[in-house]
Structure formats: C-alpha cells, structure tokens
C-alpha cells in the first residue's frame, strides 16, 4: 500500500518545474491530485503523466491570484474526490530588480502570487477542514492533514535584486507558523520548505540576454548568467544545484504520516548552502 493512498492533494503551479515534480511524486505514492497551472497545456501534460502511471488527477487552471479562484479550487477537490488532505502552495515566479528600480506593480505582483494567493486558498479551506476534523473527532478518528508552503533561501536570508520576491517568501514563513498554531487543534500539520538553487526555467543559464517568459499579460525575464551557476555549484557543499525531483522529495517528507508531530517548521533544502 502506498504511503498516500486515499489522500487528496492540491498543488498549485503544477504544470512545470517544481510544482509538476511535486504533483507527480504525490501521485506516485497514491494521492489523487487536484492541480493548477496558469496555462492549460502544461497542466494537461501533468495530468497525462499521472493518468498514464495509473493515478488520478484533475485541474482547475488559471490565475491563482484572481478573485474567487481559491474557493473554486477547494470546491474542485471536494466535488471531484470528496476530500481535502494535502495543500501545497507551490505556484510562483520572480520579477527582479534592485529596490530603486522596483515598481509598485512588480512589488505587488510578488505579494499577490507568494502571499495573497496562498492566504486565500488556505482561508477557503478553513471551513471544510474544521467541519471534517469535527466529524472525525466525534467518530473517534484521528486524521492528520498537511499544508506545505514553498519559500526560498531568499525568504530566509534575503537576496540582492529580489526585494519583492524575498519579501513575499518571508511573509509565507510567518503565515506557516501562524497557521500551525491556529490549526493544530484540527490535526493539521503546517510546514514550509525553503529551496536554494533548483534547476528550473527561473535558473536556466542564458548566454547573452535573459529569456522572456509570458506570465499572464506580463513578460518576465528568466534565467541567470552561466558564471553565476558555476560559482553557485562551487559554493553548494553537495556540489550541484538541486533538481525538481530533489525539491519534490522534501515536500513529500512533510506529507507522510511520519511527520504527524512536526508542525510550524521551515526546512532549508539547498544542498547545504547557507548564505
């Protein structure tokens, strides 16, 4: 029997990179997945990979920062699989600049995706979680649910050129610790994984200019200079950047029954790198 058989897991940003790896990992351990991506194509790819492996997955795509999305996302899980066991707030991107070049739009966009959207999703889940926990308690059953928020090494230590991104990721840590205290009575473990350098399109090396990627109506520069990657790989004690699968493994640890007495924690997943 797989570790997560019978569980229903919600994963945002699951069409690519870390989010996709998380969805695939949880599905491989028996969880039924409710996923999201901004675009249908990547989300459909994740669903196809899960179903081809014998799993179950549905998607609610679109902008997670949009009004009403959070409520629809929670309803999708309850309507599709009649459950709500794991929530992974994985969606995100960076829109970087030094503070004197950071616009209000940039800063607000980082707070919208990394703070307000997870807040709205967790707020929308609060009622169903309370109701399920009360019913289970009356029946003498103890069922733990899991929330895993995705932060960053920049959220722990800051990073030059990322005032908006780092601020959002730091706020998510505060949200994690607060909900761990609020939701402990409902047997919900709320933890946070802060990633270091992980190989995604955000950290791909570019030769001359950063790649432009469409995020909604915005064109965002993504990628890093190759010399930066070379320097980081020398600095990371394990000698390499992490893979999306490495990242997913760390999230999975917080979803296991073995983590039922761990809550309010932040784990740095960086190959040993501490800035």
Brief descriptors of the model:
seven-stranded parallel beta sheet; 275 residues; 8 helices
Summarize the structure.
The chain is an alpha/beta fold. It is built from eight helices and nine strands.
Write up this protein.
It is a single chain. 44% of the residues lie in helices and 16% in strands. With 275 residues, it is an alpha/beta fold. It has a single domain, classed as Rossmann fold (3-Layer(aba) Sandwich), CATH 3.40.50.
Q: What class do helices, strands and sheet pairing give?
A: alpha/beta
Strand content: 15-25%
Helix proportion: 40-55%
Q: Please describe the biggest sheet, giving its number of strands, its sense, and whether it closes into a barrel.
A: 7 strands, parallel
Shape: globular
CATH architectural label: 3-Layer(aba) Sandwich
The low-pLDDT segments are none
In CATH, the topology is named Rossmann fold
- The CATH homologous superfamily name equals NAD(P)-binding Rossmann-like Domain
Number of helices: 8
**Strand element count:** 9
Radius of gyration: 18 Å
The oligomeric state of the chains shown is single chain
The spatial strand order of the largest sheet comes to: 3-2-1-4-5-6-9
By CATH reckoning, the class would read: Alpha Beta
Which SSEs are present, and which pair or pack?
Blueprint: E1 8-11, H1 17-28, E2 32-35, H2 40-52, E3 57-59, H3 69-81, E4 86-89, H4 104-138, E5 145-152, H5 153-157, H6 163-183, E6 188-195, E7 211-215, E8 218-222, H7 226-235, H8 244-255, E9 266-269
Parallel strand pairs: 1-2, 1-4, 2-3, 4-5, 5-6, 6-9
Antiparallel strand pairs: 7-8
